Amino acid sequence: MLPRRLVWASISPQQRLTEWLTGEAKLNSAIRSHFHSAATFRNCSEKSQSAAGSTSLSERGPFVSRLNSRGVLRFDGPDTVKFLQGLITNDLRLLEEQTRQPVPTPNQPAAQSGPVYAAFLNSQGRFLYDIFIYRPVRAEEKLNATGSGPGDDSHQPALLADVDRDSLHELLDHLNKYRLRAKVEIQDASKDMAAWQRFGGALVHESGVNKDAETEGIGWGGGNDLSGCAAAQGCIQSCKWFRDPRLASLGFRGIFPSDSLPPLVEADKEVDEQYYLLLRLEEGVPEGSAEIPKGEAIPLEYNLAGLNAISFEKGCYVGQELVARTHHRGVIRKRILPVHFTLDSGEDSGKAVGTVTTVLGSRGLALLRLEAALKNSNRLNLKGLENVRVEVIRPRWWPREWGQEEEQQAAMA
Predict the structure, then answer these.
(1) How many CB atoms lie within 10 A of CB 177?
(2) Please, are residues 362 and 341 in contact by the beta-carbon 8 Å criterion?
(3) Which residue of 120, 290, 300, 313 shows the fewest CB atoms closer than 10 Å?
């Protein structure tokens, strides 16, 4: 089975991590040309050495990327939350779980909720689109420009969302199909707003993953001014950086006006979006319909529950039955996993264990049968390209129970 779409990008030689990103030129050239014809893993009988890797991108940085692969939707109308609640996998009531600040500031309120990550499914429970949903700050929730009272009246959308740009118009058609008489208006706001990501090890504070190391020093005499921190992370239009709702290791995410740089962005820290893609490949996090095949992917196999995209307590939504049944059965034989390609040879035993879905340089994602992948994590190669060895990597964020039974069986074999 061939992957639906493979991701490949050349990074500008002027950027600092070019050599590390691309890996060995010979290996990358072989993999890139091979993926036009076949991308199925097969076991090798010989044991390979563990792939020697450079320092993880999550330990470098911080970096900032404008996510040109994502578009922005604007939702208006009193029925917006109710309308989306019946279509997405997560619970929009999470938007009301607000993070308190001591006092409001001119560009930020006293309380604000982070984004919700979710997915749209078809009636058979297969993945269609993913979405990050934000609740913008309302004028009355913050101070005015002088700080003397509540904010001035201004029209704010009910919700904003960043979605896969290539699927944006398909998603609009999908939403309009269900809108019927609901009082909700949906518009493409990609010309006015853009999604950004801040990432890198320096952003994950040692004392707590919910803190932003770049703003913690704001204050006098070594103290920490929480209101000042909130103001520094936001812009005058009340847009703000939020901890990525999927994993703390992915850093911060936000939607900002497209005609200006977000706060805390410095010129030497802005990098191509492929750096963010590389981080996701290292962490085993697929994103968008290019990496999670539309109409085919089973959400739990692509780890969407572990990435906080699925609520098992909310009410009904389209496609819920298959997700709930699979979850309560507790048996998931295949999952998406990070892989690392190296040059090595081995004997092909002819047993297929999975399929490559995404590739960048010597890193990738693959949908693999857990028992075979974990048992042969260093003894896999590519069908038709046996001199490329594949190392399967268990993500650090995985719950202990994921693949535990398969690992025990592999250890006994």
Answers:
(1) 8
(2) yes
(3) 313
For residue 362 the two structure tokens come to 């010597």
The Cα 161–Cα 117 span in angstroms is 10
- The tokens for 255 are 């939607």
Output DSSP code: residue 166. G
**Residue pointed to by tokens 């010129």:** 267
What CA–CA distance (Å, rounded) separates 184 from 396?
A: 40
How far is the C-alpha of 230 from the C-alpha of 106, rounded, in Å?
10
Structure tokens at 121: 């499914």
Indicate the SS3 state at residue 136.
coil
CA-nearest of 347, 349, 301, 294 to 322 is 301
Cα 178 to chain centroid, rounded: 26
Q: What is the dihedral of CA 44, 46, 52, 56, to 10 degrees?
A: 40
Strands 348-360 and 116-121: unpaired
Count of CB atoms situated within 10 Å of the CB of 139: 16
DSSP state of 3: -
Instruction: Specify burial of residue 26 (Cβ count, 10 A radius: 0-12, 13-18, 19+).
Output: exposed
197: helix, coil or strand? strand
Cβ count near 329 (within 10 Å): 9
Looking from the CA of 293 toward its CB, the CA atoms found within 13 Å total 19
User: What does each of the 413 residues of the chain score in pLDDT, given as a tens digit?
Assistant: 333 333 333 333 233 334 444 444 445 555 555 554 334 454 544 333 333 344 566 677 788 999 999 999 999 999 999 999 999 999 998 887 654 444 455 455 545 678 999 999 999 999 999 999 998 876 655 555 555 555 555 566 789 999 999 999 999 999 999 998 899 999 999 999 999 999 987 676 543 444 555 554 443 444 444 444 554 555 555 678 889 999 999 999 999 999 888 887 875 688 999 999 999 999 999 999 999 999 999 999 999 999 999 999 988 999 999 999 988 887 889 999 999 988 775 555 567 888 889 988 889 999 999 988 888 777 787 777 777 888 899 999 999 888 766 555 555 55
User: For every residue of 233-281, which 3-state class applies, written as one string?
Assistant: CECCCCCECEECCCCHHHCEEEEEECCCCCCCCCHHHECCHHHHHHHHH
Residues contacting residue 252 through CB under 8 Å, at least 6 positions apart = 197, 198, 199, 203, 212, 241, 242, 243, 244
CA 282 – CA 394 distance, rounded (Å) = 10
